[in-house]
C-alpha cells in the first residue's frame, strides 16, 4: 500500500509539471549545484586567464601543482615529526631527482628556480638539492639551430650579411633564450648572439603567477619578490632595453675603474628578441669553480671527493672560519713557483729528450691551472655591486654565479671578472641611495634603533610594527644570516612572518635585498662568510660625504 501511494505521488508530480495541475516545488539541490558550477566555472576561467589565457598555461600549472603540493605536504609532515637527518637526506634525494625531471620537462621559469637551488642562494637549499640541480647551471636543453635561424629571419632579415659564421652549437642556454658565438663578416670580430625563445614571455608570466599562487598559501614571504620579478619582465623580454642597460653599467664600471669587464653591445644590431654583443673570452664562474676543484684534486693525486673532504677537514682542524685573502695569496704564489718550475723542466725535457723517437712531450701549465683567490673574488664581487647600488643607483638585481664570468686575456695574466645578463636592472633615486647608505652604516654598527627607524623610512609596513621583527628583517635581507640562530633561512622567515607579518615591502629596496642574498649565496658556496654592510660601508660613507 505504501509503495502504491508513493508511486501515485510521483505520477501526480510528473503530471503537475506537464499540465500545471500542481505547482512544482523548489529544487534546492539543483540550485546549489548550478551555483557551485557557476562559481567553479568562474574561478576556473579566472585562473585560466591568470596563467596566460591558454590551454598550455593551464596544463603547465596543473603539472606544477601535481608535483609541488604532494611534496610540500610530505616535507611539512616530516618537519612536524622532527624526522632524523637520514630521513631528510633520503627525502631530499628522491624529491630533488623528481624535481629536476619536472623542471626539464616544463622549463620556462622553473629553470630559474632550479638554478637558484644549484647556486644555493642564501644558503637556503640542502646540499643534495644543490648537487642535483647543478646541471641546470650550464646544461639546459637548447632549441634546434633551425628554430634559432627562423627567429633571426624574423628579427634581422639581413643577418647573413652581418655574420660570416654563427656556431650552431650554443655556448649557453637559459630560461628565456640561448647564446651562440658568431663572427662579424666585416671585421672578423668574435661576437655573441643572444636569441629569445618564441612565446617564452607568455609562458614565464603564467609560471610566475602559478608560483605566486602556490606561495600565497605555502610560503607567503616569497610573494613580494615573485611579484617584483614579474614586474621586471617588462624589460627582460626586450633585448633592446637590456642592451642599453648593459652599456650603462659598462660605462659606470669603466668610470669607477672596477675590477671587471662588461661586454659592449652592438646597439645598431639589437632587436627586441636578438642581442648582439662583444665576446668575452672566459667561462661561467660556476664552471670555473668546478674545473678548479677537479684540477687541484688531479694535481694532488686525489679524487674530487677526497680532495673536498681534505679541504673541509683542514678548515675544521685549523679552527679558522675561512681562508683569508693573505693566505690565498701565499698559497697561489707557492703554486705559481711550482708551475714555473714544472714549465722549466718541461721545456728542458721537450728540447732534449723529447726529440728522441718514442718520447712524449711534457705539457705546460698556464695560469688557469692556479687556484683561484676565493677571498679576493668574493670581496671584488660584493664591492662591484656596492658601487652599482650605492653610487650609480643602477644595478643588476640578478647577480647569481651564472651571470658572472671568469675571463682570461692571456696565458700568464690573472683572470678578470666578467658581468653579463642585464635583464633585471633596477634604478634607485638619489634620496633612496642616501637612505640606504645610512642603513648600511647602521647595519655595520648594529645600531638597533637606527636600523628600525630607517627600515620604517624605507617603506616597510607590518601588522604590528614590532621593532625586533623589523630589525631582524633588515639584518637578514641586507647584511648577513647571524640572527637565524642556525635555523634554515626559510623557517626563520616564516617564524618572523608569524610573529609580525609584513604587509608592504618597498619594491625599490626588494631587489637590493635579493641581490644581497644572491651575493651571500656565492659567499656560502666558496666558504667565505661576509658582512655585506661591512664591505659596503666605505662606499656608503664616500657617497654621503661627496653628495652632502
How do you describe this structure in short?
The protein has 548 residues and is of the alpha+beta class. It has helices spanning 2-19, 28-50, 55-81, 85-106, 109-119, 127-133, 145-155, 159-162, 200-218, 223-236, 239-256, 285-299, 304-318, 325-350, 374-392, 430-445, 448-458, 467-478, 489-499, 507-525, 532-547; strands spanning 163-166, 172-173, 177-184, 190-196, 260-261, 274-278, 282-284, 394-396, 404-407, 416-419, 425-427, 461-462, 502-504.
Features of this protein?
548 residues; alpha+beta; 5-stranded antiparallel beta sheet; 4-stranded mixed beta sheet; 21 helices; 13 strands; globular; disordered N terminus
Descriptive notes:
With 548 residues, the chain is an alpha+beta fold. It folds into 5 domains: 2-39, no CATH class; 55-136, no CATH class; 145-281, Phosphorylase Kinase, domain 1; 286-372, no CATH class; 428-547, no CATH class. The protein is built from 21 helices and 13 strands. Strands 1, 2, 3, 4 and 6 form a 5-stranded antiparallel sheet that branches. It has a 4-stranded mixed sheet with strand order 5-10-9-7. A two-stranded antiparallel sheet has the order 8-11. Helix 9 runs antiparallel to helix 10 and helix 17 crosses helix 18 (467-478). The longest helix is centred in the N-terminal third of the chain and has 27 residues, at 55-81. The protein is globular and about 80 Å long. The N and C termini lie far apart (101 Å). Residues 1-32 and 34-43 have low confidence and may be disordered. Keywords: Kinase, Transferase. InterPro entries: ABC1_dom, Kinase-like_dom_sf, Mito_struct-func_regulator. This is AarF domain-containing kinase. It comes from Fistulifera solaris (Oleaginous diatom). GO terms for molecular function: kinase activity.
